[in-house]
């Protein structure tokens, strides 16, 4: 094939084109100069040309060039737009099966009973706050209260009258007695619900110490029921004269009658102030240990069924909340032994309200976790495959 070789007038680049394009216009691809293809001068030049036209000879410094009338504008192909309402592909994802599903199912009954028991604690909280407010806004004549406690010469001074008068006010003794009696009856009902739940815990598989934890919960729950009946309900119902004052009526430390005394008034009316205060703290610790240990058991269940995404961290949070709530109560008890000044009385009120606030938050959070944990365990134990939607 005959070709014509010539140089670009702009950049001196050698151009090689077909002889048939002589006299036509083209452009230099290197510098863009407009050129006219010259006529062939000799047959030797046309015979020595390469076979491929419009391609640069790299060894000789040649370049590739195209003609203006040969250049075709290629249409721009746009990417297909994503449809808004594209159909979705629904596929089933096989869920992990949990071993001993029937045995783990029994734990959901425990969670239900624990939620009921904690609901009783919520009612107890309301009754306790009512008694506290009655005593806080009542004018107490301590001398009149002592005279009232001496009305029965056969038994000496009735310490229950002293406790109830300082707890709810002298004019609200019968009301405070009724409310506290109902509170401790609710405590027994809550304890029965908890113990019923612990019995179902015994049926779960032995993983991460669940069996030992269930036995500990069962013993602890039974002990708390016994202590509530013996040291709270019977004394407040006047069925037993022995009263651990800081346990039955911790609010009397905030009474105006306790201000500027030689000894805190609850210590004055205790048979053995140190041991009664120590016993009150231990019994309250056992009372709070139940939901905390149940949270420990819940964490063991979470580890056993391999739910470290939701159930395990929630159980840990529940444990920390329970410990924090008891710590504030312990601080209140220790402060109540520090003196009898007006400043300390106001400090005790602040700590008491702080503790009650944390206690209410703990109760609500506990109930919420019990309800959600039931649903979570039911979901994990469900052997049916999940359906997931994917866009096409």
Condensed summary:
The protein is mainly alpha-helical.
Write up what this structure looks like.
The chain is mainly alpha-helical. It has helices spanning 43-47, 101-105, 107-136, 142-149, 159-168, 173-201, 210-236, 245-248, 265-268, 273-304, 311-336, 342-381; strands at 3-7, 14-18, 25-27, 34-36, 88-93, 386-391. The strands form three sheets. Strands 1-2 form a two-stranded antiparallel ribbon. A two-stranded antiparallel sheet has the order 3-4. A hairpin with a 6-residue loop joins strand 1 (3-7) and strand 2 (14-18). Residues 42-74 have low confidence and may be disordered.
Can you tag this structure with a few keywords?
6 strands, 2 domains, 392 residues, two-stranded antiparallel ribbon
Could you give the order of the helices and strands?
Answer: EEEEHEHHHHHHHHHHHE
Radius of gyration, in Å, reads 44 Å
Number of beta strands: 6
Structural class comes to mainly alpha
Inertia-based shape: elongated
Low-confidence residue ranges: 42-74
Residues in helices, as a percent range: 55-70%
Domain module tally: 2
Number of helices: 12
Biggest beta sheet summary: 2 strands, antiparallel
How far apart the termini lie comes to 54 Å
Main sheet strand line-up: 1-2
Q: What share of residues are in beta strands?
A: 5-15%
Question: What is the average of the pLDDT values?
Answer: 84
Give the topology.
Blueprint: E1 3-7, E2 14-18, E3 25-27, E4 34-36, H1 43-47, E5 88-93, H2 101-105, H3 107-136, H4 142-149, H5 159-168, H6 173-201, H7 210-236, H8 245-248, H9 265-268, H10 273-304, H11 311-336, H12 342-381, E6 386-391
Antiparallel strand pairs: 1-2, 3-4, 5-6
Helix pairs in contact: 3-5, 3-6, 3-12, 4-5, 5-6, 6-7, 7-10, 10-11, 11-12
